[in-house]
Amino acid sequence: MDWLSADNIVAVLTALLSAVVPPAVAVVYRRRVRRGRRIGYRVQMDTPIGSDHRHGPGQPSVRLGLFHDLPDMSDGTLVLLRVENDGGESISESDYTGRDPLHGLTVVFTDRIVRGAALTQLSAEHLTEYFAAPGALRHTSGTLHLPRMPLDQGQHFKLLVLLSGGRVGSPVRVSGGIRDGAVVPNRSTTVDDKPPVLSRPARGITALLTAGVLTLAGVIVLSGQAPPMGCATGQLTLVGSTAFSPVLHDLAEEYGRECPGASVQVDTEGSYEGVRELAGEDGPAGGGGSALIAFSDGPKPGGYPELVENRVAVAAFAIVVNAGVPVRDLTLAQIRGMYRGDILDWSAVHGPRLPVRLVSRRADSGTRELFQRRVLDTRPELTVTSRDCRTSDTRVVRGIRCELRDTDEVLRTVAQVSGAIGYAELRAAQDTKGVRIIGIGGRVPTPDDIRDRSYPFADVEYAYTRGRPAEGSLAAGFLDFAVTGGGQRAIRAGGHLPCYSPEGFARCATP
How far apart are CA 107 and CA 139, in angstroms? Predict the structure, then answer.
């Protein structure tokens, strides 16, 4: 029957909760004593980080500029949230009474959208494992779901949350069911604090009502009656960067698991090829049953004003050599000398007497453009002199250099050709036998060296759509998932930094 829809059931049960829960909670609250189970929370920081943020109606803009060129983050804010066991008893995993088997607490950021969250402090090291489990720290829209975790008396943890879409000071609520206990605001009052608008019983009732509504919605989602938030049906094709292809396959697989009605295919042939294919489409992405998203290593070339950019990650790349070359590190000057044709033998850089064989990408490769810009300092590579990457086809130009179509072909060739050197996306390089990643000026592609720019061979990975995807479309849902949602796990697994994460957003803001 039509009236037995999920929406109607939630509405009816919510109305019943509104009638029954408040008086019941009020009675329980009056009987509660400080010695019972109790989780307290407090907002320790709530600050603007966008380029145009207002603290409230009629107040002047605060221009900080950290996100001045990141889309949808001009009103960005950072919240530092502390959650602690400030009661008289320890809390175990089984003390959480919600129906969600993985999550015990829910944080609601009123009028704001969660873009990313990171654990910044734990009072006990063993608590890390509860946040490390897949899906343990999950966010949808303005809600952050926290894992069920045991907390002894006095133990606490802190979360740094990146948000957009609302003003500083918008309410933050933590809710969840605790057996014979409660979740309550708990903050120290300073001379600058204003008295709370709501009484403590009123805030407790509001938190428990919110937990009830979210639990009901969770039951409907988990029972399969409705897809997760952000899901859409249809077909989507991811084109562009072959270097980022391993991550794209993981993203497509994860999104398909969460949204069974969506079909996401990966068909990558190069960054510039993908941009050109997208620009040749009729109409905006997401406007019909199929859509294209083009991924590019670095920004697209000029001349495509109809394409809208989304910054996805700081992608890491690597210099690779054949496993038979014992050299572990090259300076930028040495790498430039090789690709200029000045250094022709590995013995010139303390290696064996062996010809240097340069394995490069074709001119339409985003990875090649990035390599020339970040490593060669815009200097051109030696002209092509070889078709088999082993011997020179000309006596006019000294040196051996070939060009290949994609990342996989470059890595296979470097692995097979003695004395070969090339460049490729980090994860693909790590997964290829017969090649070895070498350092650049003593730096290797670790998250810390990528974040502080001390490792040069990294840049922002862009996702382009033709126009802004329609709200609720598969293209919009997938981008949300990849940029700010659960897709960040796949990005991190590939050795890259998600743009909308506390460690990645500053690097993405100023590529």
Answer: 9
pLDDT in tens, 35-68: 589 999 999 988 888 655 544 444 444 444 445 4
What is the pLDDT, as a whole number, of residue 351? Answer: 95
Count CA within 13 A, CB hemisphere, residue 109.
31
Contact call for residues 292 and 277 (beta carbons, < 8 A): yes
- Sketch the domain layout of the chain as residue ranges: 2-222, 230-511
Answer for the pair 373, 317: CB distance below 8 angstroms, yes or no: no
- The answer to whether the CB of 82 falls within 8 A of the CB of 44 is yes
What is the biggest distance separating any 2 CA atoms in the chain, rounded to whole angstroms? 93
Residues 80-135 pLDDT 10s: 999 999 888 999 988 999 888 888 999 999 999 888 888 888 888 778 788 877 77
pLDDT tens digits, residue range 317-363?
999 999 999 999 999 999 999 999 999 999 999 999 999 999 999 98
Range with the poorest average pLDDT among 2-11, 67-76, 166-175, 303-312: 2-11
pLDDT at res. 123: 83
- Cβ neighbors of 112 (< 8 A, separation 6 or more) are 77, 142, 163, 164, 165, 166, 170
3-state secondary structure 7-45: HHHHHHHHHHHHHHHHHHHHHHHHHCCCCCEEEEEEEEE
pTM (predicted TM-score): 0.57
Reference 357, options 425, 317, 410, 433; nearest CA is 410
In whole angstroms, give the CA distance from residue 159 to residue 41: 11
**Could you tell me which CATH class the domain 230-511 is placed in?**
alpha beta
Under a CB-based contact definition with an 8 Å cutoff, are residues 485 and 230 in contact?
yes
The answer to whether 313 and 498 are in contact (CB under 8 A) is yes
Q: What type of residue is 504?
A: G
The closest alpha carbon to 176, from 276, 93, 271, 273, belongs to 93
List the beta strands (DSSP E) in 123-191.
138-140, 143-147, 156-164, 172-175, 181-185
Q: How do strand 329-330 and strand 435-440 relate by DSSP bridges? A: parallel
- Which residues, in sequence order, are CB contacts of 160 under 8 Å at separation 6+? 78, 79, 80, 117, 118, 120, 502
Q: How far is residue 164 from each of residues 101, 147, 448, 450, measured CA to CA in Å? A: 29, 23, 26, 25
Distance, in Å, from the CA atom of 141 to the CA atom of 113, rounded to the nearest integer, reads 5
Hey, is 369 helix, strand or coil?
Answer: helix
User: 91 has which bridge partners?
Assistant: 151
CA pair distance 287, 381, nearest whole angstrom: 41
Structural contact between residues 34 and 87, judged by C-beta atoms closer than 8 angstroms: yes
Which of 323, 334, 327 is CA-nearest to residue 352? 327
Neighbours of 20 (CB within 10 A): 11
Phi, psi (rounded to 5 degrees) for 412: -60, -40
